Amino acid sequence: MNPTNKLILHRPACLLLTGVFILILVALSPANTTSNNEKGKNIQAYIKILKTPTNPLETRKMIAGFLLDANTPDAHDHLLKILSDPTDTQARLAVIDAISDRDTPPEIFIEPLMNILLGTDPELQSAAAGALSRFRNKDLNLTDKLIQIASDPKRLAAQRIPAIEALGKIRTKETVGAILAIMEKAPENKNDQSEIESACAKSLRELTRVDLGINLSAWKLWWEQNENKTTEQWLESQLDVIINENRELKKRYEQTENKLIETLGQLYRVNSTSETDRNKVLLSYLAGPLPAERRAGLQILMTLISPKQQVAPELQRAVRDLIDDPDPSVRAECAKALAASNDRQAVDSVWKQMEAETDPAVKQVLLLAIGQLGDKTFLQKLIQHLNSPLETTSTGSAKAIAKIFQNQKDLPPDLKDLTIQSLITRYQQINDDQPAFKQGLLATMTDEYVADIRFLQIFKNELASPNPEIRRFAARGIASLRDEKLATLLIDQLNDAEPAVRAELATGIASLTSDPKAVEALLTRINTGGEKDTQVRQITWNAILLMIKRWTIDQQIEWADKRTSPTHTITPEQLASLTDLILNQVTDQAPTWPADRKISVMVHCGSFLLKTPRDEDAPKYFRQAISASRQLSTDKSLKLADDILNTLLASTTSDVIIVQYLDSLKNLLDQKQLEIIITHFADWASQPINKPIANAVVQDLSPEFLAGLPEKLQFQLKQLTQGAATATKPATPTTAESASY
Predict the structure, then answer these.
(1) Distance CA 221, CA 584 (A)
(2) pTM of the predicted model over 0.70
(3) Host domain of residue 84
(4) CATH number of the domain where residue 111 is located
(5) pLDDT score of 682
């Protein structure tokens, strides 16, 4: 064993997986494990792990399960020897538990299990009782044997109790009568009597799902009421018990398989260094005796597939060979792998298996693979299967058709027309009591590559369906037709009772139109008064943002400006997302604008920001406007700077914003222009009502800014800082003041 493997095997945190890692390293490391000699070596490796005392019970149980599933005389002989060996209780327990997990274990294990049942180890006896119940349909005499042991007063209670426990797992009506008889003839010894009665009560409870304790009279009364049930009636009453038992077994089996797949994946990543080694490991997985190994190989292969990495030819051939694997889960995984690798050479084999497939779920996966791998020549074949009475086959064919439409851009018009009409006809044949079937076909009809105006009438009709999912698909279908005139159909349905449908309608409207009237229709549904569902409100607002994003930037800012007024209230979060939308577009588009366009938008944007919580960003856009104006003329720069100052002084903005703006002008205007602007500000500041704000502005202006002004202006500004009152809203500059430059 190489050093890497030793390191893995000696990590304390990996004790649970130790046995499995050893198994995989020993049994799967050869590239070819098909010879009898290699199989014998593999079985010996399994046995070694199973009999190693330091391995956890779960690991040993998993190994015993592998040997059972191998279904070879050699493997079973080794298991029989372990069951007969009293020196290793844990190994025996692992084998017994593995037998309990199988639906139909081999009958050769009945005799050693009966011997264990009559032994003296309570843990093994209890496990054997459960395992023996798996043979109830194979050995018709098994129940009689157990009844004989459980009823024999000459036997020790330690032998009778496990037999009673086993009877509780054999779900026949006769077993109930036998257990009641045993309970009635309990031993005279009080200790034994108590134990026997308790064991009987426990088994009766498991058999009947009725809990009457050790009350023999109550049990007799219950039996009188149920003894005359027919076999069919009794089995019906036991059905839920059996279903739950099988569901638990299936769950445990799936967990074991998934653990093995996970472990195989870990081993592949740790021990595969070169591409050659990786391919050998994958080939060994794909040729493995267990379905979980083959599934692991397929799943690992799918993680490696990419446009830059082609599957090795030998691996591709190994994958194709699994398309008719005996295990349905492997066949399904194989179809997915072939589709993922786009192995078009396998399409005929996939189609052949699809036609022969008996598992409906696998058949659907095979059809999806046909959709990926097939071309237009498969459409007519798929149309035939579209008409299958099986829902999974019909919907699988529809999905395959959608995939071919996506992949084949040059479909002949007559073939496309035939396919569209076939979908319509098949949909019309589905009954209203088959909503899932309808949804399966609607999923294809609403696909962007299949969508056709001929589906419109179906979509219109289904908007009135009592099933909300079908209404949701109908809304999506109308949107998929990409006809702006159809938006009104969706707007008319905005009061639908189902939140998911309303969300789909909003999204559909946004995909069809950007008309301001449609925006206003959705705008009524973004607050709690118009829409109660929080998620739908968010989806509706996102739809509005998508619609207005298609407008010109001027239209967007104008619309957003209105949303800041008290009569057009939106939430702070909505205003923030709207602001982000606009600013991001301004940033992206501004480099392409001519100077006059940039001036207009930047001023408009800055003025809008003054009315939002993002007002501190307004000077940034004002500066960009002035900078652009310098490309036209210095006079225009001065007038624009003065107009912006008027806007700031007339607004309710803070002194900080005014300071930022004034400070920025020293790099945008020449000295004379700057003096004109400051003179304007000083004239405005001289009014008593404006002095508090003016004082705050002057105090915050940078020393460098003030130092660049004439002494007269510096003195005039310093005068403002003396005797300032509490700041209040500033007065709007007069026309004369605005013209002072």
Answers:
(1) 80
(2) no
(3) 32-133
(4) 1.25.10.10
(5) 87
